[in-house]
């Protein structure tokens, strides 16, 4: 699902928007493409805040991400973007947590998103 074009987008800077929904409404948090790690069909991001997102996914783990960059050729020219759906959780231990903590000392958790759908939009 995380095809080579998505991988290429993650190598260029841009904003990643993560949208969650629970009984108290929608919440939106942002991070940077360069913070995201893709392993197979799973995305990981360092989390220092994201407390509303964490509360939401306890009730409803489904999230929607948007990401893109002007630096990768899209469907109609320069620039491309994606909507990515998945199920989120947070890691606080383990080898991947330790690896990301070494790279991003500010994190308190690692956001893990098991990707279920990827749609290229532009």
Automatic annotation (TrEMBL):
Domain of life: Bacteria
Chain ranges of the Pyridoxamine 5'-phosphate oxidase N-terminal domain: 6-120
Record InterPro entries: Pyridox_Oxase_N (IPR011576), Split_barrel_FMN-bd (IPR012349)
Segments crossing the lipid bilayer: none
Name of the protein this chain belongs to: FMN-binding protein
Organism: Enterococcus canis
């Amino acid at each position: 699902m995380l095809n080579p074009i998505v991988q290429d987008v993650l190598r260029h800077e841009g904003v990643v928007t993560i949208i969650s929904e629970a009984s108290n409404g929608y919440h939106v948090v942002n991070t940077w493409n360069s913070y995201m790690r893709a392993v197979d069909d799973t995305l990981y991001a360092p989390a220092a805040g994201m407390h509303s997102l964490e509360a939401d996914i306890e009730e409803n783990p489904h999230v929607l991400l948007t990401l893109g960059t002007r630096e990768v050729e899209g469907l109609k020219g320069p620039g491309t973007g994606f909507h990515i759906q998945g199920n989120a959780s947070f890691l606080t231990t383990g080898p991947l947590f330790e690896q990301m903590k070494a790279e991003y000392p500010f994190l308190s958790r690692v956001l893990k998103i098991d990707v279920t759908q990827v749609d290229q939009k532009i």
